[in-house]
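Intended use. Records like the one below are meant for learning the mapping from a protein sequence to its folded structure. Do not use them to infer anything beyond what is encoded.
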Amino acid sequence: MRAGRSHVLELLRSLGPVAEQIDRQRRQDGLLGEVRALLPVGERTHCLGATRQDGLLVLTVESAVWATRLHYRLPTLLSALAPAGITAIKMRVQPPGKGLVGRRLGGSVPGRGGARMSAAVADHLLTVADAIDNPEIAEALRRLARRRHTPSV
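Structure written out for the chain above:
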């Protein structure tokens, strides 16, 4: 760093409300890390967030399927987190791309393009449209194929 200049994070930490938010996020990230460390490797990435409200741990997962799977791990999680004062766990479902969690993890953001359709998928949709007897469904498939986004270079 050049003399007389501060790192952006240092400047943000000097602002009261911003510093509080940075500290809160650091604690939540640490808690999420603790919870993920207690989960099997294949389940860790599906747990998107963790917040604590008194003795209640709120886990944010990416789908109801993962909430159900993690539900079976609750007794293990509760016993491991009991020394930290956690007495109950609640699941919250937030699909990727919804809210800040999805954006932070690289999920698609509504209104910003979303997932890209490959040329092969678009061609397949057109082939299926040509083979379908129902003209309304065929036209819907053609419209969908025409909406294919080309990746920006």
